[in-house]
Amino acid sequence: MTLTVNGLTARYGSSQVLFGIDFSIGEGQVVTLLGRNGMGKTTTVKALTGMLRQREGKLSFDGRNIGAMESHAIARLGIGLVPEGRRIFTNLSVKENLIATAGNPRRARDPWTIDKIVALFPNLGRRLKNQGWQLSGGEQQMLAIGRALMTNPKLLILDEATEGLAPLVREEIWQCLSTLKGMGQSILLIDKNMDKVAQIADRHIVLEKGRVVWEGDSASLLADKSIAAAYLGV
Predict the structure, then answer these.
(1) Which of 20, 54, 168, 170 has fewest C-beta within 10 Å?
(2) pLDDT at residue 181 is higher than 90
(3) How far apart are CA 196 and CA 121, in angstroms?
(4) Which domain holds residue 137?
(5) pTM for the complete prediction?
């Protein structure tokens, strides 16, 4: 398994948010975290990437215990994050954003390059000299994905992959994720578009108040309408 999570709990101060979460992601799999806002999805991401220190449970990535590691050490092992809100460097150019995170600590045989990112997102190729603040929201999201890929991650995590984007841009992001899956990229995906995630993901995990309340494949998710009604609706 690429990632194994056992009994993950997390809190902010005295407020507990996660209550013993278990799940795993195999090599080349796409797994989603689903649930309404405030159910613990982003907290799970923060716990996995070392950004939230108040956590317990066993976190194993690529055979190593990462539970006590700092964020930078976890990233070097091969976990790349596309955070909610993108958080690109707005005062740097597109090219500089990509160069800033470039690295191959795992010695991937065919590492990501700027040319490969541009092939994945042609819009960025036309904007390489533009600063981050000059990009549209969709272009910023493309850049955030490209920046994460430049770290050559074994596991790519996307928190709210298409939130707030125009329909055409969302389609481009979904096509990108399909391409990455076809390349064997392991992905943990958070997004609210159930129909789209069902097309790309191998397995889905539904969170409710910090607990896993359902887990299954896309066929099961789409077949049981009660899941969406109970846990995913507004």
Answers:
(1) 168
(2) yes
(3) 19
(4) 3-232
(5) 0.92
The 3-state DSSP class for residue 151 equals coil
| Cα Dmax for the chain | 49
Which residue's structure tokens are 């101060």?
A: 13
pLDDT in tens, 40-51: 999 999 999 999
C-alpha span between 163 and 191 (Å, rounded):
7
- Tally of residues, the chain: 234
| pLDDT per position as a tens digit, 55-83 | 889 999 998 999 889 999 999 999 999 98
Would you call 75 helix, strand, or coil by DSSP? Answer: helix
Alpha carbon distance 233, 137 (integer Å): 25
Strand 186-190 versus strand 203-208 pairing type: unpaired
Q: Which of 43, 133, 45, 136 has the alpha carbon at shortest distance from 88?
A: 133
| For residue 232, pLDDT beyond 90 | no
Q: In what order do the strands lie in the sheet with 155-159?
A: 79-82, 155-159, 186-190, 30-34, 203-208, 211-216
Position 9, amino acid: T
158/205 Cα distance (integer angstroms): 15
Strand pairing of 203-208 and 211-216? antiparallel
Contact between 215 and 35 (Cβ < 8 Å): no
φ/ψ region of 164 (left if φ > 0, alpha if ψ in -120 to 50, else beta) reads left
Q: How many domains does the chain have?
A: 1
Give the CATH number for residue 74: 3.40.50.300
- For the chain, what is the mean pLDDT? 90
